[in-house]
Amino acid sequence: MRIRDCHWQQIESHLRNDDRVVLPLGSVEQHAWLSLAVDAILSEEVAVAAAEPLGVPVYPAQPYGYTPTYVAFPGTMSLRLETLLAVMGDLIASLHHHGFRRVLIVNGHGGNQPVAGLLQQLMAEHRGLQLKWHNWWAAPRTMAFVREQDPQASHASWMENFRSTRLPGVELPSSPKPPVDYARMALMDPQAKRTYLGDGCYGGHYQQPDAVMDALWAIAVAETRAQLEGPWLP
């Protein structure tokens, strides 16, 4: 259930029986021909789909992440790393204060990975707190399915091209994009990276049939739900 569809008394009642909760984390950054909010949209939607049968509340995605590498693309928003760590620390402290003890963070953006390193510190600071970090798109079965369909698929390719991230009236390229040189790109400043990337896609096909996307989504939801179901400590 989405937190936005609940009032506070319902959450208080829920906490009497279940102390699990999901906090999605995304990013607002360039995704070639897809929505700038791809990572925020998908982290929340996969969390909601996974948690709904379990009756576990899902917060709105924290939309802004750490993505300084894309700031040369208009529309991208990046927090400083120390800011993101502070924000996530504050949000998790709030959850603990209210009585949530088992927290699944569903992350939708690779650049946010440093937050995962914060979790051990937060569990040491907040008694009884259990935190899980789940990169939904990189989960084993999800990524294996992507690789079976298109070994070159990467950022802003078809693997992020769902109904919820497509933009009306936008026509995507029909031919796949060759993979980028990651080692070379890692040395580039944001403007050089924009020039090198062109539209922003990292490689692979831009779209797949909806049947493929639905199959990918089902796997991603199942893997996310499995994280929420357990194992947790008693």
Automatic annotation (TrEMBL):
GO terms for biological process: riboflavin biosynthetic process. Keywords: Hydrolase, Metal-binding, Zinc. Its cofactor is Zn(2+). SUPFAM superfamilies: Creatininase (SSF102215). One of its GO terms (molecular function) is metal ion binding. It comes from the Bacteria. Belongs to the creatininase superfamily. This is Creatinine amidohydrolase. It comes from Roseateles toxinivorans. The lineage of its organism: Bacteria, Pseudomonadati, Pseudomonadota, Betaproteobacteria, Burkholderiales.
